[in-house]
Amino acid sequence: MADCYSNGLMPLAEGIRILLDKVMAVSGNELVPLAKATGRIVAQAIDCPINVPPANNSAMDGYGVRSNDCNAAVTLTCVGEALAGQPYVGAIEAGQCIRIMTGAIIPDGIDAVVMQENVTRDQQQVTLNAGVKSGQNIRLAGEDLTSGQLLFEPGHRIKPADIGLLASLGIATVTVKRKPKVALLSNGDELVEPGQPLASGQIYESNRYALAAMLKRLPLDVDEFGIIPDQPQSIRQAFSTASEYDAVISSGGVSVGDADYIKQILEEMGQIDFWKLAIKPGKPFAYGRLGNAHYFGLPGNPVSAMVTCHQLAVPALRQLTGEHSEPPLTITATTTEAIRKRPGRLDFQRGVAQRSEDGRLLVTTTGRQGSGIMSSLSNANCFLVLEQERGNIEAGEQVEVLLFDQLLS
Ligand SMILES: Nc1nc2c(c(=O)[nH]1)N[C@H]1C(S)=C(S)[C@@H](COP(=O)(O)OP(=O)(O)OC[C@H]3O[C@@H](n4cnc5c(N)ncnc54)[C@H](O)[C@@H]3O)O[C@H]1N2
Ligand code: MOO
After folding, report:
1. Which of 31, 232, 281, 365 has the greatest count of CB atoms below 10 A from its CB?
2. Ligand 2 in contact with 349 (CB < 6 A)?
3. Per the structure, how many domains does the chain have?
4. Region label for 117, one of left (φ > 0), alpha (ψ between -120 and 50) or beta (otherwise)
């Protein structure tokens, strides 16, 4: 538990390791049409059903020739035409050639294609220079993919290019993992849905909207439970429904305030595996179990909620969906300004990364970095990931940068 660490806070990497250790992919698959498969996770290995291309075909518009005829400058007789979808049928004798278009099947006898820019044509007579190599400008059957080869392993997330590839192979449906069911709730008496008038002491609910927008980009079935008031009985009621889900994400009520009941009731109805991490923002993040569900208790401050969802809940949810994902890549950039930082927590400051005129990668924070300042996140295109034990940073120093992925941009 967190107490073994010098400051009572578990390093983020340790928290992620525990999460990934505990979360297993959901069971259950479904067959979906290709048009609905983007972003879904492959459940059964997909093998290539055909050769790609299926037959030798021309890579250029020009003339199909027999390379043996073309050892020296030569004039050939054009005896026919091959178009993509309309093959040439018939024999081709020595001294003959055919007109051929890109994608057209190479007929028997032809072993090279000469670009039309490199010939002169007079009626049926086609004159070309020497130097035709057997196989030139011919795309061979199976040179891209061979029938039977493995295309996608289980755990692969289907991207737009994959959809194109699968369609090009005639595959119309894919067996994918079922979408995990996620309950999303917000907690706090002060919260009011946007569109309603605000009374004194109230603020607009924003976390559920932001989190739902982010989670929509993952293959999840998210049910929004709305705003749960700061009353133990309301929280218990919501928890008893949510415990049937695969995962629960809440924001708010995980700190030590008098009305912070979430953690307390999670402990009562389920269990807490860890609470409090050495990250900023997001220190009071809690992870545990509630019935069937993995429970991600995000802090209420809006930036903390998004950062902890992105850094902790999302890798775990990806694993729950069955996705085999790699940790995100970070890059190094030069900070344009001095940054204040106290050692002790890994800090996810929000910033803008861009190239300088001389090609260097520079990064500048988006101003005030309080965990309630959503504009710091909204104006950013990256996180500056400032190591746990690092202190103040001078302008011109190198910092680690994590560019926003498709969940944040
Ligand atoms: N004595 C201590 N106080 C606090 C600590 C601490 O260690 N000791 N930690 C602070 C940190 S760090 C954070 S982060 C917050 C997290 O607290 P909670 O998770 O209990 O969140 P709340 O108190 O419910 O709310 C915090 C803040 O966020 C606003 N909020 C909450 N939900 C929403 C929502 N859905 N949409 C928009 N804004 C929301 C809420 O009004 C509060 O202003 O605790 C610190 N305190
Ligand atoms: O972690 Mo809190 O998120 O520092 O405000």
Report:
1. 281
2. no
3. 4
4. alpha
Which residues does 345 contact at the CB level (< 8 Å), separation at least 6?
9, 278, 279, 280, 283, 388
Same domain for 221 and 124: no
Q: What is the pTM assigned to this prediction?
A: 0.91
CB of 300 within 6 A of ligand 2: the answer is no
CA distance 304 to 201: 21
Kindly state whether residue 393 falls inside one of the protein's structural domains. yes
| Nearest ligand to the CA atom of 308 | 2
What ipTM, to 2 d.p.? 0.97
pLDDT tens series, the chain, 409 aa: 445 677 889 999 999 999 999 999 999 999 999 999 999 999 999 999 999 999 999 999 999 999 999 999 999 999 999 999 999 999 999 999 999 999 999 999 999 999 999 999 999 999 998 789 999 999 999 999 999 999 999 999 999 999 999 999 999 999 999 999 999 999 999 999 999 999 999 999 999 999 999 999 999 999 999 999 999 999 999 999 999 999 999 999 999 888 899 999 999 999 999 999 999 999 999 999 999 999 999 999 999 999 999 999 999 999 999 999 999 999 999 999 999 999 999 999 999 999 999 999 999 999 999 999 999 999 999 999 999 999 999 999 999 999 999 999 9
Q: Is 301 in the pocket of ligand 2 (CB under 6 A)?
A: yes
Residues 213 and 290 in one domain: yes
Instruction: Please tell me whether the peptide bond between 107 and the residue prior to it is cis, using omega within 30 degrees of 0.
Output: no
In angstroms, rounded to a whole number, what is the distance separating the alpha carbons of residues 211 and 214? 5
Domain of residue 349: give its range: 331-403
Q: Which atom of ligand 2 is nearest to the CA of 303?
A: 3
Q: Which ligand is nearest to the CA of 374?
A: 1
Q: Give yes or no: residues 44 and 169 share one domain.
A: yes
